[in-house]
Every structure is written in C-alpha cells, then in structure tokens.
Amino acid sequence: MKFCAVICEYNPFHNGHKYQFEQIRKLSGCDKILCLMSGNFTQRGEIAVLHKNIRARHAVECGADVVLELPASFAVSPAEIFAGGALHLLSAIPEVQTLAFGCESGTKEDFLKAARATLSEDKQFKTALKDNMKDGTSYVKARTQTVLSFNSDIDEALLTSPNNILGVEYCRAILSSGAKIEPLPIPRVGGGYADTALLKNFSSATALRAALASPDKKTVKLLKANLPATVLRDLANYREPPFKQAAMCALLTGEPEQVMKCPDCSEGLENRLRGMAKSNPSYDAALGKVVSKRYTLSRLRRILSQNFLGIERKDVRTYLEAPLYCKVLAVSRKDMPEILGALNRGKYPVIMRKSDAGSLRKDALACFETDVRANELYGILTGVHTNEYESMIV
User: Fold this and answer.
1) Burial class of residue 253, CB neighbours in 10 A (0-12, 13-18, 19+)
2) Less packed terminus of the chain by CB within 10 Å, N or C?
3) What is the model's pLDDT at position 39?
4) Per-residue pLDDT tens for 179-220?
5) What angle in degrees, to the nearest 10, is found between the helix axes of 162-177 and 108-119?
6) Which run of H or E residues covers position 74?
C-alpha cells in the first residue's frame, strides 16, 4: 500500500480541500490518502472552530482514508517545527511515499532547490542574515532576503507566499531527515491562504472563519456554496469560544519565566506581552501594541497558545528526536484492516483506544499528555467533551 500524506488543519474543511483530494488521486499514484491534522489548536495560535474528531470525520467523509493527529506540541509551533514534527511522524511510516501540499506556484524541483538553499548556511550567510535583522526585520523575512541575495535564480514567490513558505519548510524537513518521500505541490484554486473575502465556491479558511464569526444572509449563502454539506451541518450552531479571554488570564496569572519557555518567545517578549496585557485587557488590543516587523501577529498568538497549553521549547525540541506515536483520529471503515496494518508496520505505536496509550513511555507519554491536556481545555472552553482515546470509524 502506498500513502500520499497531507499535513493539514481543516479549520474548517472546505471545497479547496476536497479539490486537493481529487488532484492527489489523479497525480500521486498512491492507493490511500493519509492526513496528518492539527488537533484542537492551530499553527496561527487559534482555537479550532470544530473539535478535532469532527474535523477528522469531515476529511474521511470527503475523500481521505485515515486522519492522524499532529501532536499539539508541533501544531502550535513555528513553521520549521510544525513541518519538522510532521515529517518526524510521516517518515516513520514506510508506506508514506508522497507528501502533497497546496502552493501558489512552483514545481517539485523548484521547492527542493529552494529548500537546499535555505539549508546551506555558511559563515558568510550567517553574517548577512544578522545584518538583515538589524532594522527589526523578523528572522523568517531576513532569512528569505539572505537566501535570495545568495541565490538569484530562486523565484522570490517560493519564499514569500504563505503556502509556498510551508512547502519549502516541508521540503527542508524531508531533506534534513533523509526521508524517502516525494513532494507533490498542488496549485491552489480560489482564495489565497490569508484572503479575507468570501468567493463563490473556493474561499480560504481565513475568510470562512471570519464569516462564521459574524454571519448574515449573504455570508450564510456563500458558506453553503463553499462548504460540504456535512461540514455545514456541524457548523450550524457555531459560537466563538472564550479562548482569547482564557489565554489572557493564563498570561497574566503565570510567571514571566514560564512564558519565556514557550517555543516562539525570545528577546524579552514575555515582559512586553504581559506589560501590554495589563494596560490593554483586550486580547486583540494587547497584541496589536506588540506586533511589529520582527514580531508577527501569528507568532504572538502562538506564544499565548503555547503558554495556555503549557508547551515548552525544550520539550518540543526533545520530541523532534524522540520515538513518538500515531494517534488515529478517524479511519475509513471499508479499508480499516489494511490501513491499520500499514500503520502498524511503522516505527511508532498506533493509538486507537486507552489501552494503546498505556504502552507509551517517557518522551512519547509526555507529548501525548500535552494532547490530552489540550483536549480537556478545549472541552472546558467549548462544552464539547470527548473521549481522547477513542478513534472514529467512518
């Protein structure tokens, strides 16, 4: 059996994701689609609009064969760790032969070339990188400027467009890990990653989340056109949970030293965030006072999420090297024996029930306990309480 993997969030699952499944079936030559999906908190530092089990069920109902959970410690981390953690799990499954991802432009060769360039950081490169950060530019943007200055033949869009940036990170992780996985970039259709405008039928998840937060007659009609019926039904009674307030409470009641341990926190950001939170009780207002060229809004949101979930930098780095687990969120009933057989041939134990989790030790157990804590906190905020240990058979 050959799997084509997709690293995803499905927050929420929409027509563009369904289109990607269709293209994977057509282009990958693989037998099954395996999704590695963020749990209840996302890489932008936000709480998911629907519980991870529900989002996983949507993926299987709309064309995936199995959905695994990307541990929270990776899912709420910067792009390099998000991608590295995902490849750490996928490379442990021999049947994963292809990794598909959405992109704005570029071929497989383009992405691999750009990834190799970003991995070649000699003394001269590091000096130029440091110079490019002197004016307050973020590390990611400064690295992009430096790579382009040393590699004039690389298309700038590969390092500056949102989906392309993640695609390059995936390829970096493939090359760094030595994984025998072929990248498969698939051009996006419709709205871009961060587009806020609702389109006729291929809007971005960003636009769809904004529409859910303040629906009216027009947006409800467009939501129906953009979302599969099964997703629309589960979003019918959506109410934004009080996550922002909870994250602010965690920021102000905890010690600065704890915030400092978060993967995205550096340069005294813990003090700036806490200081602004004290004078600006609103989550959005406080972050708006700290955001800058160097500190993006997504990074600041992640710090608050990491602090809320108790995710620490040293632990995440350990998990990137440690034997972990494959937590099944949902699987197709029709092919379940074959799929589980393939997963069980991998390096890491497969978790589908509580007794499976009992075999975890040390680092894997600590990583899994963070997932459990994230699930419990999500339940408190949303009122959606589920059995963390049970997988969905669709």
Assistant:
1) exposed
2) N
3) 97
4) 999 999 999 887 666 666 778 788 889 999 988 987 777 788
5) 70
6) helix 72-75
State the DSSP string of 242-283: SHHHHHHHHHHHS-HHHHHTSTT--TTHHHHHHHHHHH--SH
Report how far Cα 289 is from the mean position of its chain's Cα atoms: 26
Q: Identify the CA nearest to 392 among candidates 80, 96, 59, 134.
A: 59
How many Å apart are CA 322 and CA 363, to the nearest integer?
7
- Kind plus residue range of the DSSP H or E element containing 170: helix 162-177
Instruction: List, in sequence order, every residue forming a beta bridge with 103; answer none if it has no partner.
Output: 187
pLDDT reading at 242 higher than 70: yes
Spell out a b/e string for 287-298, using b for 16 or more CB atoms within 10 Å of the CB, else e: bebbeeebbbeb
- Which are the contacts of 22, defined by CB distance < 8 A and separation ≥ 6? 63
CA distance 27 to 16: 16
Of the candidates 97, 98, 17, 26, the residue with the CA atom closest to the CA atom of residue 64? 17
**Residue 195's pLDDT is what?**
65
Residues 6+ apart with CB under 8 A from 163: 101, 102, 103, 104, 188, 192, 193
Confidence (pTM): 0.94
| Tokens, residue 311 | 């995710």
Give which of 280, 333, 270 is closest to 303, Cα–Cα: 270
Please state, in angstroms and rounded to a whole number, the distance separating the CA atoms of residues 220 and 199. 12
Judged by DSSP in three states, 80 sits in: helix
How confident is the model over 79-93, as a mean pLDDT?
97
Give me 247's structure tokens.
């994250």
For residue 369, give both structure tokens. 């306990």
Strand-pair category, 32-38 with 66-70: parallel
